[in-house]
Each structure stands twice: as C-alpha cells, then as structure tokens.
Amino acid sequence: DSGVTQTPKHLITATGQRVTLRCSPRSGDLSVYWYQQSLDQGLQFLIQYYNGEERAKGNILERFSAQQFPDLHSELNLSSLELGDSALYFCASSVGGGTSGNTIYFGEGSWLTVV
Amino acid sequence: AQSVAQPEDQVNVAEGNPLTVKCTYSVSGNPYLFWYVQYPNRGLQFLLKYITGDNLVKGSYGFEAEFNKSQTSFHLKKPSALVSDSALYFCAVTVPTYSSASKIIFGSGTRLSIRP
After folding, report:
1. Which of A47, A98, A33 is nearest to B30 (CA)?
2. A-chain residues within 8 Å CB-CB of B49?
3. Which of A29, A38, A43 to mutate to test the interface with B (most CBs of B within 10 A)?
4. φ and ψ at residue B84, rounded to 5 degrees
5. For residues B42 and B35, is the Cβ–Cβ distance under 8 A?
6. Rounded CA gap, B100 and A97, in Å?
7. What is the pLDDT of residues A55-91, one digit of tens each?
8. How far are the Cα atoms of A94, B13, B16, B79, B98 from residue A106, in angstroms, in the given order?
9. A10 in contact with B, Cβ within 8 Å
10. d(CA B116, CA B114)
11. Does the beta-carbon distance from A99 to B45 stay under 8 Å?
C-alpha cells in the first residue's frame, strides 16, 4: 500500500458527461501528480500541484481541470467526455517537488470507461 | 526537452536467467532516474532511483540498475529472474530544479515475461 488513495476505483459514464476523480496523497506529501494511462499512449503526465498551487503542466486537455485543496487532497475534473478519454487515471504524490529527486508514490488508479 | 526511451516493448527470459530491461534518457543537466513496476490492474510501485553517487543502485525485490552517464543509460538488471517478476516496467527521468515543479517523464514501458 503506497498510502495514496484514489476514488472511485471504477467509473462508467456516457459521452458528453462530466466526472470528478479524487485523490488523497500520502500523509505529509505536498505534491500531487495526475497521470493518464491508455493502451496506445502509455503513461502521460497531466499536471502537478504543490501545496495548493499548479506547478507543472503536461498534456492535459482543456476539457480537463484539476485543483489541490487546502487539506492537500486533489480532484481531477473531466468534462465533455469522449470515448478516447477511457483510460486509467493515476494520482501520485511526493514530499516535495523537483529539487531533490523525491520518490513519487502512485495510487491504484481510477478506471474510467466512457460509453 | 527531456525524454526517456525504453527500446524493447517486451523482454522474454527463462526463470533463473539474468534479465536486463533497457532505458536511455535525454536531458539537459544531471538526471534523476527511476524504475517502477506495474502488476496487472495495479498502480506503479517504486523499485529504485539514482540521484547521485554510486552508479550501481540496488532496489526492491533483488533488482539493481546501473547509471551510465556516457551512454545516457539506466538499465534495470536482476541476476536471476523469477516468474513473479513478470510485469510491466517503467523507466522515468526528471532533472533537479530550483522550483517546486517536477515534470517526471516516463518511458513507454517494457513488458517482462519470465517463463518457468
């Protein structure tokens, strides 16, 4: 158990809908990362938050947004869903950011299926 | 821009034989390098990392990796493979920054299959 908690574990929704994925980082971790894993595109970095503020942005679509709250949990909002958004979404956390090579620890992921 | 490559989609090894999973990287500056393993329907588990110091890094489950700066490689190795090592392996790279931003980039993954 990495200590990173993600909910829900599985989600099935229709095209055009909006969903929210939730992540609780490990105790004491200030950074939260979101990744998307699909069969054809591997593991794609979406976005990083550090202590409530956005710090790094990857290949995140404009239909997607995220935030980190004062209690450090994070939510990834996916809207106007398309079939191609079906994927495994991972949250990860680390103590700090990029200055010291902190290990990032992954949750078990949220399986999103868009039908 | 930083990048990491895992040139083999799949590696097949007989149980008891040594295994190597290859990783090469491209960054500006000194890299931080990581290996993760993913078992079916699970999240990524941290195996080991190289930050600085000894080029040979030892990690979990008997794995080790060697940092080679001249060849920009960080290959994962194990002297004697187990069937239970069968999984998807990811190499990752980032560079130290003086901010809290940390854009860790993962390779495409290598599926390791150990046959009994």
Report:
1. A98
2. 101, 103
3. A43
4. -70, -10
5. no
6. 4
7. 888 889 999 999 999 999 999 999 999 999 999 999 9
8. 9, 27, 30, 27, 24
9. no
10. 7
11. no
Q: pLDDT tens, A7-28? A: 999 999 999 999 999 999 999 9
Work out the minimum CA distance from A74 to partner chain B, whole angstroms. Answer: 16
What whole-number distance in Å separates Cα of residue A93 and Cα of residue B89? 19
| Contacts across the A-B interface (CB distance below 8 Å) | 84
Distance CA B88, CA B36 (A): 8
Q: Is the pLDDT score of B97 beyond 70?
A: no
Distance CA A38, CA A6 (A): 18
Whole-number average pLDDT of chain B: 91
Dump pLDDT digits (tens) for B38-50. 998 888 999 999 9
Interface of B with A in 44-83 (CB under 8 A): 44-46, 49, 51
> Between B101 and B25, whose confidence is greater?
B25
Q: What distance lies between CA B33 and its chain's CA centroid?
A: 8
b/e B16-44 (16+ beta carbons within 10 angstroms → b): eeebebbbbbebeeebbbbbbbbeeeebb
Say whether A98 and B99 touch across the interface (CB within 8 A). Answer: yes
